[in-house]
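Internal tracking record. Fields below are filled automatically when a chain is submitted to the structure queue. Please do not edit lines marked as system-generated. If the sequence contains nonstandard residues, flag them in the REMARKS field before resubmitting.
Queue: standard
Priority: normal
Entity type: single polypeptide chain
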Amino acid sequence: MNLLAIRLDHRHWGKYSGYQRFLYAFDETCTLVEEIAVLKDPYYLSLPTRLFRKVARRLVRTDSPWYAYEDLQAEKRAARFAAKMPVDVVHFLDTEHSFYHLHHILEKQGQDVPALVGSFHQPPDKMADVMVPALLGELDRILVVTHDQVDYFAQYVPRDRIDVIPLGIDTRLWIPPKDRRFSASLKVLTVGQYFRDYDTLVETARCLQDDPGIQFTVLSRELDPIGVPDNVRVLDYVSDDELVALYQDSDLLFLPMKEATANNALVEGMACGLPVLATDLGGIRSNAPGDECLKFPENDPGIIKEDLIKLKNNLERRRYMAACARDRAETFAWPRIAEQTLASYRKAIAYRQSR
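SYSTEM-GENERATED OUTPUT FOLLOWS
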């Protein structure tokens, strides 16, 4: 089976992280013949490039608000590649951004359309703003990362064409420290920026300023370190190896969220044996449904403060949550995710052949 993948270039994921990592864990029955990465994040683009793309996007007219000039170029590149080499499956890893024209381009060129597989990452209530429903019928298989996404897509395609396959992780790299000892203090870690509720985090930390035993570390380029309480340390960058060490040196992963589907920080933290305290959302429940995660019903700093104090004072519960977190993380191991994805590819090929 020859696979061509189109994905966003998420530079902030680093060399150890990222949804795309399962592409390199397939067995010998699947060959990744081409990987097209599209860099769209202006944080990493030069000013001339940003200006050019801003103008070029006006020439790409679609009903999709996220589809842009660089996505069209990626689909054209995929079509050119498919004309030169057999491709059985094209997998759009960030379909909300990148899928629109490929099937039409191939048909216009007189080529057979490979099986088309699309992965989706946005919460259900955001999908209506970023996806063109008519396109969903062109996909032979839809992959979602959390169970609460299924109902949205089931409005447009049969449920038996939708698979739930979570975000994967290297469980040999992200591991608990050998010498972790839970103590009366609590080093609280928050990682990431997308859908994070940093207003709630700052207010919660402010409520706990009188408790020197609870300290917060935040790794994010979205939180301004100016004006945060003294018990909050803000980091905007660490190396890949420093990130592993940061998880291993912490006592608790804290994720106050506005929305949630797949979450790198959640699976990385659990794999490193961190108990989790997070907002009770569908994406959190899908990835951490058990005792590894204490969930709060709403982002209320007063409620969260009490949860943090209880966890600080209950070392036995934190040890138990840490063991549950590591056990849960094994379900996200890359080989397992690759195996599930390969099964979806086979179903997509069979469906394409029957169309």
